[in-house]
Design a protein that fits this description.
homodimer, alpha+beta, Phosphoribosyl-aminoimidazole Synthetase, Chain A, domain 2, 2 domains, six-stranded mixed beta sheet, 29% helix
């Protein structure tokens, strides 16, 4: 059927119709993908050969170059999007999430591939999902090298879908973060985020029932706040790196500050956060409140408003903060004694 | 929770328990992943930094190098595996499928990342799925650079799961297949396959109900034949390339010979197959028979026994065939006139 787009495949074949797989919807979806992709293509992307795979000219071949890969999904944020029939944001969540994950290694993203699975293919819906993927790829200057749209009646309920993806980036060995260089007294800079990002949705859906999602909340609806797009922190991080030395970074995904910051912290140091230094998005506070999370549970489950952290020498903190409007000085590196936790969050003073 | 394995993430957080996400099962699954991965690791794989992403030392940096990426899923073969509780084969299907997809561009695979989504995480089951992924990576000499295991109650039914993945490989520009060089008289070599590979399962499940899957069939059970592992054609292709010039290749996925071979065929030529030159696996014949597929539908829906095709100069055919035991001369390149199809399959003589 030659319906591939830059390596994008679909099951096909006339006889699929009798098995409940809609070929015409597939063709319509691919037409929408093509129309969207016609607007922008990464300059390093090469013409695909028959659509089995996508080709990308490696920009800086160098014996010091390391490829960096990460795969992720959108989690049950997908069920919020499906319920609200809002299909153009989850692709952006996914790409931005992946960009941030490899940014922790200081990698610059090169290309992305998505996997969209549906119970019954609705071309318009699939087109919107992939449109969101494409939009975020363009904004992050990442090639959308390919993807797979799979129609699987029997696995996904009507109206349900899943979306996952893989990003590949590159970093030179000498530019990998030096977590061993983190020292007592270093500053921790946090990048403010706008909502739950892509974690905590199983909990959020449990404590805020779907019947409330159209209710007004924080200047929008609960549903809109739940679907706030996971930001890409690539540009703010690069802006800070132009003026400051960044020793280590963490993307605050599932596990919150308590479990993500230690992932790039050396032994013997402790990250001490002051929660009064940043604000908690209203939707995040609402989930924490309704779920009656303890202080510890809050910072182990939700991002609580900090989407990404960077550790810089104390003397570089001021210039780093000036380089990014969404950045705040959120903590300090201290010494970690035997038996002490790797992360401590001092609660904000209650008003 | 620091439960990552080479970039393998999971949603975590104590408060997830109240939302139906089982953290202890997650830890157990990760322990199984680690145990499996301890047995073999690709030499170019570097230590991951905090588990947000996997790192891979690019082996042959060269301005002529092109990266090749492809994403795919296992399709509804997953539902057969889930019903039969046979979890160790679909990972192999997926990796081998992806290896073959990029092999069409002549790429050598470098690394792979998987995405496993489940309704309720069963550590033993997830461990077996990822074990299959790891096994096929090892056999294909591909680094398993990372992956995501997502537990999504509400999206997947209990016992159901989905599995997708992305492969990245490399090829030098000069070694990309030259489809323009395909000429009338060239030979088409086919690699025999063992079953449906990973396409046609929506149809197969419709015409062979689950109640029959334990019935004896072709020296095994119907279920076992349905789950025959999609072969990797990397080694046979490389063996042939050592002795023969290969001009173009196709992986026979959904769409069969009729839709896949034209994907790398230049204008003006026609691939003419002689179906008596190879055998149809019994399970494939059974599906075609029960679905009452026409000749055209057979070759547009199922692989009909040919898993991969290579176009070589006629004078190279004999040495190529001698280099691989599973290879057969299955067709010739002819001239394609105006209005003629790109692929013709002459039916086998009926006995």
């Amino acid at each position: 059927m030659n319906e591939e787009l830059q390596g994008r495949g679909r099951e096909s074949g006339d006889a699929y119709a009798q098995a409940g797989v809609d070929i015409s919807a597939g063709n319509a979806a691919v037409a929408l993908y093509r129309a969207r992709a016609a607007g922008w293509r990464h300059p390093n992307q090469l013409d695909a050969l028959g659509g089995f795979a996508g080709l990308f000219a490696y920009p800086t071949p160098d014996a010091e170059s390391v490829l960096v890969g990460s795969a992720d999904g959108v989690g049950t944020k997908i069920l919020v999007a499906a319920a609200l029939r809002r299909y153009d944001t989850v692709g952006q969540d996914l790409v931005n999430h992946c960009v941030n994950d490899i940014l922790v290694t200081n990698a610059t993203p090169l290309f992305f591939l998505d996997y969209l699975a549906v119970g019954a293919l609705d071309a318009e819906m699939a087109g919107q999902v992939v449109s969101g993927v494409h939009e975020a790829c363009r904004r992050n200057n990442v090639a959308l090298l390919g993807g797979e749209t799979a129609e699987m009646p029997g696995l996904y309920a009507p109206g349900h879908f899943d979306l996952a993806g893989t990003i590949v980036g590159t970093v030179r060995r000498a530019e990998l973060p030096q977590v061993e260089s983190v020292s007592v007294g270093d500053a921790i800079i946090g990048l403010q985020t706008n909502g739950l990002q892509t974690n905590g949705y199983s909990l959020a859906r449990k404590v805020i029932p779907e019947s409330e999602w159209s209710a007004r909340f924080d200047g929008a609806t609960i549903g809109e706040r739940l679907l706030a797009i996971h930001p890409s922190f690539f540009e703010p991080v690069r802006a800070m790196q132009r003026v400051a030395r960044v020793k280590a970074m963490a993307h605050i995904t599932g596990g919150g500050l308590l479990e993500n910051v230690p992932r790039t912290l050396r032994k013997g140091v402790q990250a001490v956060f002051d929660a009064s230094a940043w604000s908690v998005p209203a939707i995040v506070a609402e989930v924490a409140h309704r779920a009656q999370l303890t202080h510890e549970e809050c910072y182990r489950t939700l991002n609580m408003g900090v989407g990404f952290t960077l550790i810089v020498p104390a003397e570089d903190a001021a210039v780093a903060l000036a380089a990014s409007s969404g950045a705040a000085l959120v903590g300090r590196i201290g010494a970690r004694g035997e038996g002490e936790p790797a992360v401590v969050v001092h609660p904000r003073a209650t008003a």
